[in-house]
């Protein structure tokens, strides 16, 4: 339960960061079940958080996954399968950049086949740091959480 609240708070923090930007459009939030969210920023950037789109709580998971044709960032909170989920498939189809901590990012490239060119120093951070992306429209702060993270 605490993990779910933390994930929701992280999604909410990203939503607030996006709404603070100069609005061209509006911000939308989609929940795909479990911990999987999509945020579309006012400038149209698509962020996926813990994209296990095909999770059991999403009866339309396969259709929703197939419909994802744009993603700019994939944010992974930790390395459990139910958070990494469909990230590699989505990244290969969309070119989305990976946003997570450096150790998790390098492991996803080495062990899961996440495209290396989409996991760079610009989007891999360390706990306590903040990544500023899309000219400041999105800011991601990496915070330590008391939860396992190995995959």
**Cα-atom Rg, whole angstroms?**
14 Å
**CATH top level assignment:** Alpha Beta
The side-by-side strand order for the widest beta sheet comes to 1-2-3-4-5-6
Question: Helix share of residues?
Answer: 25-40%
Distance between the termini: 20 Å
**Poorly predicted residue ranges:** 1-23
CATH superfamily: Ribonuclease Z/Hydroxyacylglutathione hydrolase-like
Name of the CATH architecture: 4-Layer Sandwich
Oligomer description: single chain
- Residue-averaged pLDDT: 86
Tally the beta strands: 8
Strand content: 15-25%
CATH topology (level 3) name: Metallo-beta-lactamase, Chain A
Q: Describe the biggest sheet?
A: 6 strands, mixed
Shape: globular
Order of helices and strands: HEEEHEHHEHEEE
Task: Tell me the structural class.
Answer: alpha/beta
Number of domains: 1
Overview of this protein structure:
The protein has 151 residues and is of the alpha/beta class. The protein has one domain: Ribonuclease Z/Hydroxyacylglutathione hydrolase-like (Metallo-beta-lactamase, Chain A, 4-Layer Sandwich). Helix content is 32%, strand content 20%. The chain is built from five helices and eight strands, in the order H-E-E-E-H-E-H-H-E-H-E-E-E. A six-stranded mixed β-sheet has the order 1-2-3-4-5-6. Strands 7-8 form a two-stranded antiparallel sheet. Strand 7 and strand 8 form a beta hairpin. The longest helix has 19 residues. The N terminus is likely disordered.
């Amino acid at each position: 339960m605490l993990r779910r609240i933390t994930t929701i708070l992280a999604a909410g923090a990203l939503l607030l960061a996006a709404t603070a930007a100069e609005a061209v459009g509006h911000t939308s939030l989609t929940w795909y079940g479990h911990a999987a969210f999509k945020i579309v920023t006012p400038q149209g950037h698509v962020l996926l958080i813990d994209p296990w789109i095909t999770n059991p709580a999403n009866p339309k998971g396969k259709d929703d996954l197939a419909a994802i044709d744009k993603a700019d960032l994939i944010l992974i909170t930790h390395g459990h399968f139910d958070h990494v989920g469909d990230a590699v498939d989505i990244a290969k189809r969309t070119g989305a950049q990976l946003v997570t901590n450096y150790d998790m990012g390098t492991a996803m490239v080495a062990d899961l086949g996440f495209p290396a060119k989409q996991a760079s120093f610009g989007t891999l951070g360390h706990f306590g740091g903040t990544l500023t992306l899309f000219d400041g429209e999105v800011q991601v702060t990496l915070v330590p959480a008391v939860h396992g993270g190995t995959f």
